[in-house]
Give the backbone structure.
Amino acid sequence: MEIITETKMEKNMRLIILTVIACLSLNCFIGSHRDACKYNLHESISSSYCKFIGTATASTNPNMDANTLQKRDQILTFELLNCYQYYEKLKECNKEEYKYMPAIYGMNLNPYFSVDRNRVAFRE
């Protein structure tokens, strides 16, 4: 049986740390600042406000009282404002100066091999 000395433990620990760093760095996207901005904005909660506006307007019931209608209108106004802010931030992401700035962003949780670019990409 082999006796593990302190230097071997240090080498093993360094190897483990380097392996963890390599795995974490390979799961990130490398792209432009514009892509990173769009990705982070899409992953934030503000992108979900635009998805539920249609369901809020479709939920009309002729038997609703005035308080319920007022609350529904307040929620709809809140969602519209947040959706507007989301699209304003999205416009800000499309600035020309962000096009060539490099960035690392996101976690590649569902990777697949993209044939056209020969790289690992994110499946949407």
